[in-house]
Amino acid sequence: MSSVVSDEKVKADFQEFAQSTSENGIIDDPVARAREKALVRKLDLYIAPVMMMLQLISYLDRGNIGFAATQGMTKDIHLHGTNLNTAVSVFYIFYILAEMPSAIFVKRLQFNRFLPAITFAWGIVCLGTGFVHNFGSLVVTRILLGFFEGCLFASMTIFLCNWYKREELAVRVAFLFGEFILRPRNVSLR
C-alpha cells in the first residue's frame, strides 16, 4: 500500500514540476524560479568556500617545494644534480595517474567518506614532509602528495557535478581556481 502512495506522490511531484517547466527545461513559474535561485545561492555559500579553500591549500602545497629549495632544502637534505627535478616530476606523474581511479571510486565510496579521508591522508603526508631527511623520503612524500591531491581534485569536480546543473557547473569549477575574482563585473552568477 505504501508503494502505491509513494508512486502517486512521485507522479504528483513530477506533474507539478512538469507544469512549471517548458519544453526546453526552463522553469516558467516565477515562484519555482525564485526557490531555485535561493537554493543555488545557498549551495554557493556552503559548498564553494570549502572547495575553494581545499584547492587553494592544494595549490600552495604543490608549489611549496620550489620555495623550500630556495630556502636551503637542497643543502639540508643533500640533494645533488637533478634530484630536485625528479622529486618535482614524480609528483605530477602520480597526480595524473590518481585522477581516473579516484573518479571511479568516489562514486562507489560516497563523497561524505571519500573526500574527508583523502583530505586527512593528504594532511598527514603534508605533515610528514617536515620530517624529510634524504632524497628517498622526499620522493616518497612527493609520490603520496601527488596521489592524494590528484584524488582530491577529481573528487571535488564530480562532487560539484552532483549538486549543480550543467549550465551552472562551469562557474562553480572556476570557483575551485579562484577565477571568479577575474570575471567581468557585468556577468552575474545567476
From TrEMBL:
Entry keywords, A to Z: Membrane, Transmembrane, Transmembrane helix, Transport
Domain of life per record: Eukaryota
Membrane topology category: Multi-pass membrane protein
Localization terms from the record: Membrane
Pfam families recorded: MFS_1
GO (cellular component) term, any one: membrane
Chief localisation class: membrane
Keyword Lipid metabolism: no
InterPro entries hit by this protein: MFS, MFS_trans_sf
Transmembrane segments: 43-60, 80-98, 110-131, 143-164
Molecular function as annotated in GO: transmembrane transporter activity
Protein name per its UniProtKB record: Major facilitator superfamily (MFS) profile domain-containing protein
